[in-house]
Hints:
Elements: E1 3-6, E2 20-23, E3 28-31, E4 41-43, E5 48-57, H1 61-69, E6 74-83, E7 90-98, E8 107-116, E9 134-143, E10 154-166
Parallel strand pairs: 4-10
Antiparallel strand pairs: 1-10, 2-5, 3-5, 5-8, 6-7, 6-9, 9-10
Amino acid sequence: MTDRFDPNIPPTGPTNPAIQGEFTGVVAITEQPTLGRANLVVNRGKPFDIEVNWRVFGNLVPLWLTALSVNTKNWVVTAYAESQGPGDEVTLGRVNVPVGGPGFSQNETYTAKLTVPANKLPEENPGDDSQSGVYKIVVTAFLDSALGPVGYDMMGYAEGPIIKVENPL
């Protein structure tokens, strides 16, 4: 899994200002009803869940999140499906996750679960080369800043698994 968070200010010493973020674990895809912990082949005719966890950490986190949470109460978590081969690029869904506070720690953790409705992604049809039915899942977590011209927004992304969409009938 590839992931990245911004701002990314690692500590250069034990007391130097720092703020970082990371996605913890993999982006999990689970069908409803579930047959196991995760699945790379999803049934087009049934909804499936995407779960993602992330954290922001460092000694600047309490100050940063306190300032942003005055005007922005939620992280906006969005999942996308990027076709691998021919096919559609699709926004799968979006959820809001409360920032929390007041009183932030130097290590804040978050979880989001998005439910993708049935029939949201096209499957491959034999003889039709316009849809591969194979998608890379990408999830973003975004916290908007209203603090003026300098970019204090927080944003991270995680590339999840590549899935195959198939109707078993």
